[in-house]
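In line with agreed milestones, work has continued on tokenised descriptions of protein folds. One protein thus recorded appears below exactly as we store it:

>
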Amino acid sequence: MNNLQLGLPQAPSRRTLGFFALFSIAIGVVVSQTSTVSLLQGLALGGPVFYYAFAAALLLSLCNACTFAELSLSLPQAGSISTYAEVTVGQFPAILAVFAGYVVPAIFGFSSEMMLFDSVIGQLFPGIMPSMGWALLLLGTLVLLHLAGTDVFATVQQALTFIIIAFFLIVGLYVTVGFHPEALPPATASVGFIGAFPVAPVIVLCFWTLIGCEFVTPMVEEARRPQRDVPRAMVIGLLVISVADLIFAHGVSRVLPREQLLTAVTPHLDVVSAVFGHTGRILFALIAVTASACLANAVLAAVPRMLHGMALNGQVFPVFKGVSRRSRVPVPALLFVAACPVVGLVWSGGDPGKILPLTIAAAICWMLVYFLAHVVLLVLRRRRPDLPRPFRTPFYPLPQIAAMAGLLFVIFNSSPAPELTGPIVMYSGSVLGVFGIVAAVWVKCFMRQPLFRAAPAIACEGRASVTTT
């Protein structure tokens, strides 16, 4: 029997999150500085290919969202992908999936975000803080907010999401509709972006700007109307941020040359400077705080709950079962996740020049988890047709099959340059290897179970629970 059935402490159960809170969580990882930089680098590398690549990335993301929506409502527990994989393909893939798809990006992607944040604020207010001081200050502040509970987190996230989407739309529309006097005409601007470049690496960069909408699924037990709001939050979130991204990218293409976008460490800061001048640079400090706080907020909300759910099932260290008495926040898991970007900063030496390979390595690991999620849904549909499914993927199984083929194509063609292939393989391969060994040892030696034996899923009162022996 697992801890859920024994009645031991589990994830917070108060249903306090409405649609807009879930919508904010679904795009909380998307509206970040690393996503903005990836968008602009994709625009610069792809030229006219960029828009086709973005459309392909959006289709992949919508397929992923449908799969996660169906899984989360069929097996509505805080563990997310670990729960889904456990009842279909076994404990080893379940454990590895969470670490590969969420802990590894917390090390690479989160640390890249912190480097960008520190670089932007350091340029605007030089000499005030030591290297990475601003980043650590932001991280510490958000950890304290999360310790205060989910209600505080949701309020903060909704405000941050509104601000960053408004920023994208204001900058893009300001240039597009002709208010910026130095903006190039569309025909002239497009000439500077014409060039041949493989589409797959551009899809990776575009995909990173849409990745993470499934961060809403660990919050399913805290949603007021999960059956309605969880799928809508992911799909509407992807569509809204896609419109904002494309308007912003179109505006950028008319004010900055391709070469500057390719070489700048903080191209989004250059965009604001070109459009609004020095005053805009100062105001951009608020946007930098907002964007980085959005990503950090979503990661610190969702990933600790994944680890907490895994601990209740014996899949990770028992210390992650702990929750605070008052706010029911999984404190040990929260502190572990908060330490991940610090590890990434130490590993990379805080070098902003390593942001691109780190981002692609994180995206590859995340794509592998999406691939596994599609496999899990196919298996679960076949093995447990009796499970309650408040949401069913339209045109099943075509979205899953198409997404799996697309993900594999993008993964194997993800390096934008030969010199980046080695670092990307090293970053992603090394951590996947380490976590794979740890997961295998944990399952065999501590859980004493076969690596790939599925645990039974038991439907109970419209909800699904997992039994492990």
About this structure: The CA atoms of residues 73 and 365 lie 24 Å apart. The mean pLDDT is 79. The domain at 17-466 is CATH 1.20.1740.10 (Amino acid/polyamine transporter I).
